[in-house]
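Bench notes, afternoon.
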Amino acid sequence: MPRGDGRLSHDLDPQRPGPQDACGVFGVWAPGEEVAKLTYFGLYALQHRGQEAAGIAVSDGSGVVVYKDLGLVAQVFDEPTLASLRGHLAIGHTRYSTTGGSTWENAQPTIRANTAGTTIALAHNGNLVNTAELARDAVERGMDSDGSTSDTALVTTLLASRPDLSVEAAALEVLPTLRGAFSLVFMDETTLYAARDAYGVRPLVLGRLERGWVVASETAALDIVGASVVREIEPGELIAIDEHGLRSARFAAPEPKGCLFEYVYIARPDTTIAGRNIHAARVGIGRRLAREHPVEADLVIPVPESGTPAAIGYAEESGITYGAGLMKNPYVGRTFIQPSQTLRQLGIRLKLNPLRENVRGKRVIVVDDSIVRGNTQRAIVRMLREAGALEVHVRISSPPVSWPCFYGIDFATRAELLANGLDNEGIRRSIGADSLGYVSLAGLIAATEQPKTRLCRACFDGEYPIELPAGNLIGKHLLEGVDRRVAGAGAEEVVSTGATRGPGGQPFVSNSSGGEVSSHA
């Protein structure tokens, strides 16, 4: 039965969502620990980065097992399942698709056995921009697609296409051929690996347990499992962790270009990136927003939850009272139960409701993180006016989003981006606000405490640090085949022998090239 995906966003229209989060990855090497449970809680802390699917791979030294399904982490895993995933190392993934559709085959970790008998499981945060080129390389090496249409599966396939090399040596050959953003955690039967692209677009951090090591997309996930932060994985670095300890190798010269939108929206407020706490950065953005776009008003309110830190900063800097004006139902996300036409007309009230006594008769400043299509802000402005607000001033804690992201965040297409076709005044009229102010790009960058040259700002200024392919050889569904059969969405378990059993119990076996082929017609 289909399930609501449980997103905690304030998107109003399921068919026209706002910016979708990058994926979350987690890995642990810790003999003597319950690594599957550690990975589960790590993924739980990273749930905000992806809500389409979740999966965990574990190894006990003799074989790799993957369990994955569509849904939230807490929907996919239960106590009996986690208890069955025994081993000393594990990796995990919580997915929002940026290349490849929302099918079971594209859930992660992906898994592939090479002809030498080594099994590789891999999880990826980011998006590659030379997917077509990599797909041709895989075909030339005689590797099939294994039913998946994701760039992640391609990387796994390419690693498995070099059976004469160790996984570590194969990675040092494959990683330099990948273009785009990637923070990877992967494993074989004995070793945990982590790698980050030369630009370090997506975050990846290393932590220490009393009896092992952890890697994760955000420091908040390290905190949750009781690991201390050691350092960030460096751009262009591959690390390997096994019984001999931790070792590091360089596969590319670092050219740091960390994602600026992580500071605005993607990362958890309790995460630290490049030494800067995200909550503090967002409060700082709000302070700068107040200085750049002051207005006489009676109340500053956030659009919960993403606008809260910036609203606090705006209120502190302006001296205007901070308060609650919108209450959010945290349990309403997109759902497979469609509302009736009457309920659909209520729109935002299914997710947000005004505190009438707080806003009635007041000039209100409402702070949000970004405007993509403008649907959210347009509905909020209308709702606040209906609740009795005298004036509604909108303040946005990022510059106008005018360009799509090809590095792991699924924005709208450029044609759909409101700021692409309208100037500030046009956007203000479109959403119906009394005034509209965006923080400047310079102000946002200053709040991160990072040099401009170390940040990817492409969605704001169109300057893409990683060259994009010419023509149309890029896109979320690049690898989708028009005649591809979509398998059922039930949970399946994949073992290192290549065997797979789905809900119907039909077996799949590994072929000689490490792929999976059906054992029945």
